[in-house]
Amino acid sequence: MALPQLYQSYTTEKIVSFLGAPSEAQSLCNGQWLILPETAICLANVGKEPKTSFFENGSRFCWVADQPYRVNNDTSSYFVPAQVVGPAAKERAIHLFARPRDSTEFLYLGKLEPSYCMVPPRGENHGMAYFELRPALPSALWVRLGGAPLGNLDFTAVDRALDSLRSPTTVEDRLGVLQTLVEFWHGPIRPEDGYSDAELAGISSPMPLRWWYRWAGKRDNIMSGQNRLYKPTKLTVEDNLLHFYIENQGCYQWSTLSNGDDPPVFGREESKDPWTQEGMTLSEQLILTCLFEAVTCHAKYGAWAALDEDKLSEITSKLSRVAIAPWRWINGTEFYAGQGAFLYVSGRTDREWGYMCIGAKTEQPLQFLKPYVSSDWDHVAI
C-alpha cells in the first residue's frame, strides 16, 4: 500500500485511500478525526491559538475543539476521540494532516503519539488535546502554519558577546552581553517594556537589577517562566539580603545585596538554610537566568535527556562553556552555547551523569545531536 509523503499536499479523499477504505472510516468532530480499524487520521485546520489548532513547539501539536463535541465518555477528554487518548491509542497509528490558511488541501506532517494532556473547555475554545509529533516540524513550515515569526537568526553577535566573558569585563560590558542575548531571543525591547523612574521610586535595588527593570522589566516572560524573577514591588529583604529570584516551587532561592554596582549573589535550598555565595555577580546571574529561561521555555526546538558523562562530554565539546561559574542549584548547573544552540547540564557534580537540556530557535543548530538521540530521551524536537 502506498503511503503519504511527508510535507506533500493531499485531498481528503486521497488521504483516506492511502490509509484505509472510505467505507470503514468513522468521521468525528465534523470530519476533523477519521477513525479506521488500524489508523486514526487528524485533519486539522491550523493557525494561531487559542481558537484554532496550533503547534506549541517543533514537536508539540495542540488540537483545539472548535465546537462543543461529545465523542468520548471520559469526563476529562469527552471532546476528543477516545481512540487517540491514553494507552489504548497505541493500537492505531495516528497520522496528522494540517491545512494551512492558504491551501484547500492538507499537508502530511507525520505521526502523533497518543494524547495524555487535555485542557478543559474555556472561554476561547471547547477543549484542547496535546500530542507529540514525529518527526519535528521544520521551522519554515512552522511559520507557514501559524507559528510566531522566527526573528533574528544571526547568532554571531551572541557568540561574540558570550565569548567576551572569557576576558576581564566591567558590569556595563556584562549588561551589554545580556542585552545582546535578550534581543536575539525576544526581539527589540520597546520603551514601554521598562519601568519608569516614578514606578521605581522608593524601591532599593542594586544597579544591574535596577537597569533591568528600567530596560525590560515589564517583559515578565524573559526572566520568568520556569523560575521567577521578582517584580520590583515584590522584592523583600531578609537577613540583610535582597530576595530577587526563586525556583518555581520555592525549592531554591537567590538573593543579593540591596545596593552596589554589581554585588555578589547568594543561594539556598530551604528557608532555614544559611545563605551561601554562588560565586558570581548579579549581572552574571541575570545572564544565566536569561539563558535558562530561553532554553526551558522559549526554544521551539530542542532535547532533554539524562546522559552519562561520556556522552555529555562529547555533546558539550561541540559548544563553548559560558565563562560564568555554574549555578549551585540542582547539584551544579553549567551553561554552554555556540552556533545558535544553547545548553545547560544539571546534576553533573558526581562526574558520572547529568541531565541535559538544549534548545534553539530553529532545528538547524541541533542537527549535530542526531547521532546521540535514543528512544529513552525525554524530549526530542530536532
For this entry, give a set of tags.
382 residues; TATA-Binding Protein; 10-stranded mixed sheet; 9 helices; elongated
SSE blueprint and pairings:
Elements: E1 9-10, H1 12-19, E2 26-28, E3 33-35, E4 39-45, E5 54-57, E6 60-64, E7 93-99, E8 106-112, E9 117-119, E10 128-134, H2 139-144, H3 156-163, H4 171-186, H5 197-200, H6 207-216, H7 220-223, E11 228-229, E12 236-238, E13 241-246, E14 253-256, E15 264-268, E16 276-281, H8 282-298, E17 301-308, H9 309-316, E18 320-321, E19 333-338, E20 341-346, E21 353-360, E22 379-381
Task: Tell me what you see in this structure.
The two termini are 29 Å apart. Strand 20 (341-346) and strand 21 (353-360) form a beta hairpin. This protein folds into three domains: 9-144, no CATH class; 170-290, no CATH class; 299-381, TATA-Binding Protein (2-Layer Sandwich), CATH 3.30.310. The strands form three sheets. Strands 1, 2, 3, 4, 5, 6, 7, 8, 9 and 10 form a ten-stranded mixed sheet that branches. Strands 11, 12, 13, 14, 15 and 16 form a six-stranded antiparallel sheet that branches. A six-stranded antiparallel sheet has the order 18-19-20-21-17-22. The longest helix has 17 residues, at 282-298. It is of the alpha+beta class and 382 residues long. The chain has helices spanning 12-19, 139-144, 156-163, 171-186, 197-200, 207-216, 220-223, 282-298, 309-316, and strands at residues 9-10, 26-28, 33-35, 39-45, 54-57, 60-64, 93-99, 106-112, 117-119, 128-134, 228-229, 236-238, 241-246, 253-256, 264-268, 276-281, 301-308, 320-321, 333-338, 341-346, 353-360, 379-381.
